[in-house]
Design a protein that fits this description.
Strand content: 25-35%
Distance between the termini: 40 Å
CATH superfamily: Transcriptional Coactivator Pc4, Chain A
Structural class: alpha+beta
Organism: Salmonella enterica subsp. enterica serovar Choleraesuis
Largest sheet: 4 strands, antiparallel
CATH topology: Transcriptional Co-activator pc4, Chain A
GO molecular function: single-stranded DNA binding
Number of strands: 8
Keywords: Plasmid, Transit peptide
Protein name: Plasmid transfer protein
Helix content: 25-40%
InterPro entries: ssDNA-bd_transcriptional_reg, Whirly
Amino acid sequence: MTMSDLSATGAKPQRVRVFSQSVAMAFEVNLDKSRSADNSAFVTETEKYYLSLQFAPPSDNREYGWNSEGSILMKLSQNEAMALASVFLRIKPTLKFEKRKTTHRTHQAYKNINIGPNDRGGLLVSASIVPVKMGTFKPLNYNLPVTQMDCVSTGLFLLGFLTLKMPWVSSESIITALRLSESKSGQ
């Protein structure tokens, strides 16, 4: 089943979530609604999809505030999705996105993500948002320990997204390319 089949049938969005007591993280495949009517020869169906990453603080009744003031939402590029897949599949040991300029609830801000090993065998994901002009809103910072099995499921989800975006490339070829890229950057 393709993403267009899922969209046409009204199925639930494709996402993976990781939870802790202090924060939750979600990767979700989204359809760019501004491009959905674009049927030009230069825009393929797969180009209309993008990946978002969201962090949400806990709220009442064992729920998370996905739409709260304290949530962080990032639209990811394909290169960022590849880098994240590489770290969650444990091809690359660490990853940093620093001072990525964006908006947070209509305010100019920097969004940062730092992923590295934790002492329990998984990964520690740190996400923060800092206002460009101090005083416009309170900076947010979240730390999420990710277990080894959550790393695997998240990495496979990201790999699935990459195969959606590049249907002519097999998942084995993507993993091989990520490994080669990491071996070249380590030299």
